[in-house]
Specification:
The chain is an alpha+beta fold and 136 residues long. Helix content is 22%, strand content 39%. Strand 8 and strand 9 form a beta hairpin. 32% of the residues are buried.
Length: 136
């Protein structure tokens, strides 16, 4: 997933280990007016997104971007806590297995959507359709 200039771009590949499970998985989840864009273990997406509201620590391998009332957050879990980090909408950023490729592509002048496409070229966990969401 990549964010730049008001556009959040995300791929549609879901995988397990070295196997591709789905090329058309929608990583966007809407709950109570908040949009979540999740990466990591698909089976944990819903409970990880629900934790956004309770700030409860859960055991999972999920990281996501949350869009809540015009603000963006990167949310994830470590061994002891949930972290919810506000992100500036003026800076480019990326999460997920292809994040290094995507941020480099954006640094070279590509859009968020183009960056996710470039990440898919080099990262086995990134692929399928590239969808976009306009941050307001």
């Amino acid at each position: 997933m990549a964010y730049k200039d008001g556009i959040l771009a995300y791929d549609s590949r879901s995988s397990a280990g070295h196997s591709i499970i789905d090329h058309d998985y929608n990583k966007r989840i809407d709950i109570n007016g908040v949009q979540f864009f999740a990466c990591g273990t698909v089976a944990d997406h819903a409970k990880a997104c629900a934790a956004f509201f309770t700030e409860e620590h859960i055991e999972c391998d999920v990281q996501y971007i949350a869009h809540d009332k015009g603000l963006l957050y990167i949310v994830g879990f470590d061994d002891e806590r949930m972290f919810k980090t506000p992100q500036s909408t003026k800076a480019s950023f990326s999460i997920g297995s292809g994040q290094d490729h995507a941020i480099t592509a954006m640094d070279c002048g590509l859009s968020a959507k183009e960056a996710v496409k470039k990440a898919a070229y080099r990262d086995a966990g990134t692929g399928g359709k590239v969808r976009t969401f306009k941050v307001r």
